[in-house]
Design a protein that fits this description.
globular; 8 strands; 357 residues; single chain; alpha/beta; 52% helix; disordered N terminus; 12 helices; 8-stranded mixed sheet
């Protein structure tokens, strides 16, 4: 019996060893494809820029499209707004800092003089502010074809919003949830009247896969007993994907001509400074530069999801490098998505009533 047990144990160990090798080889293959910028089924890859992935759209894009892009005062959001404007889309920039937004508008119109850019004030961590923004936007009587929930907050220390909710979760997830809810009927109506599919894009991150099921607790995310900035950010990005999954199901049930998808932009280059010179340090910075994306490469997946005819009718999916990709098992959990949806709506309704009172 002991010989049989040892033999069986050896087979199991060998199986796990082979499995690890296969996983490692698959990861190595994906990494090499990423570094080389190998194009996926969409025809684009990690090296593709936002301008490249939307270049072919220009000739057949319907006129008078309107997009709202949050977090567009810098980085990926500003590049997304620039490229959409370049493709003839009217762009609404909700911003907490209107001075920064005005500078982005000026920069875009310097390149695209006829660009139609509208600035409106918003604080995505504040539910009343989102309410005011939506009321103001809807009063303009404009159509709404594209909603890009791009703004992101990463807080190193525990902070609370004016609604007494943890700041990262409030900004990245709860704020965008309410914004989408309040603008959804306008998007559905616009799509029905024009026959043009509405597009919602939630900018997420591969870091969502770091979240374990036992640490994804709604009440703890809203009001954590202990705080870790990276964990809070990852949780908010997981929530963004679950929002996509449940909303796609709701939209399908309503037979609405509106799609919603999640995008991982990749890790974008920042202003890294070198304090030390040398062969090893230079080599490390060289390797890092190959792994990081430029701002335009980072904005490519968002712009692809917003404008490409190739994903007409595709909804509830997770994209990276302009191609459909795999998200975590937890992000694909339909029951978890429905539970989060219900908890979020109850909380937001309660907080909005409290703010009015």
């Amino acid at each position: 019996m002991s010989i049989i047990y040892c033999w069986f144990s050896s087979i199991v160990a060998l199986f796990h060893y082979c499995k690890e090798i296969i996983i490692s080889c698959a990861l190595m293959k994906e990494t090499l494809k990423y570094l080389a910028g190998v194009a996926g089924p969409s025809g684009y890859g990690s090296n593709s820029t936002a301008e490249q992935v939307t270049q072919d759209c220009s000739s057949f894009l319907p006129p008078h499209l309107t997009a709202i892009v949050t977090g567009a005062t810098s980085g990926i959001g500003a590049e997304t707004a620039r490229v959409l404007a370049k493709r003839g889309v009217r762009v609404v920039l909700p911003a907490r800092d209107l001075k920064k937004a005005a500078q982005v508008k000026e920069d875009i119109q310097r390149e695209v003089p006829k660009a139609d850019i509208i600035l409106l004030e918003i604080d995505l961590s504040s539910l009343p502010s989102i309410n005011r923004f939506c009321t103001e936007f809807l009063s303009l009587g404009l159509p709404l074809n594209i909603l890009i929930n791009n703004a992101g907050k990463f807080s190193q220390r525990l902070e609370y919003s004016e609604d007494k909710m943890e700041m990262t979760f409030a900004t990245n997830y709860l704020g965008h949830f309410l914004l989408t809810e309040m603008l959804l009927e306008k998007m559905i109506d616009t799509a029905a009247q024009t026959g043009i599919e509405g597009r919602i894009v939630n900018v997420s991150s591969v870091i969502h896969s770091w979240v374990k099921r036992d640490s994804f607790c709604f009440n703890q995310m809203v009001n954590p007993k202990s705080y870790n900035g990276t964990r809070a950010y990852a949780q908010s990005k997981l929530a963004n994907i679950l929002h996509v999954k449940e909303m796609a199901r709701e939209l399908k049930a309503r037979k609405a001509k509106v799609s919603i998808n999640a995008a991982h932009p990749g890790i974008v280059k920042t202003g890294i400074t070198r304090d030390h010179k040398g062969f090893i340090t230079d080599s490390l910075f060289f390797i890092a530069s190959k792994l990081l994306k430029s701002t335009s490469q980072g904005a490519s997946t968002t712009c692809y999801l917003a404008l490409s005819p190739k994903i007409e009718g595709v909804s509830g999916k997770y994209f990276a490098d302009c191609n459909e990709s795999h998200c975590s098992g937890l992000a694909n959990d339909e029951a978890e998505a429905q539970k989060l949806w219900k908890q979020t709506r109850v909380l937001i309704c309660r907080r909005l009533r409290a703010s009015v009172a």
